[in-house]
Prior knowledge:
By secondary structure, the protein is mainly alpha-helical. It is built from 6 helices and 3 strands, in the order H-H-H-E-E-E-H-H-H. Strands 1-2-3 form a 3-stranded antiparallel β-sheet.
Amino acid sequence: xxxxxxxxxxxxxxxxxxxxxxxxxxxxxxxxxxxxxxxxxxxxxxxxxxxxxxxxxxxxxxxxxxxxxxxxxxxxxxxxxxxxxxxxxxxxxxxxxxxxxxxxxxxxxxxxxxxxxxxxxxxxxxxxxxxxxxxxxxxxx
Length: 141
């Protein structure tokens, strides 16, 4: 079976180059994982999506035009933190993410920071939390 490859626009490629230039990888330091997350989340802010003609539908960044071509899936496979700490596809087990500085992200918990941002598409609180951890981590180094 042939794998489907989506053709994204030049604007989408430019967004990816700026906000998601490298695929998520778990074999990085915590600081690098946090910086990767920060950059990706900056790209999810409404002003940055709009600038590139993108929107968030369900669990993907999509092109507003071009029949909604998906540009980036928002799941554990696009997060260095998830790749580093083990929850690649939402295992649903707290043991997966025990060492992650954010702990276990639980979609059934109304107070869960990641999922409240994810479901509302308001990533400002997540970005703020990531930046606080970056600041804390860089002070330790």
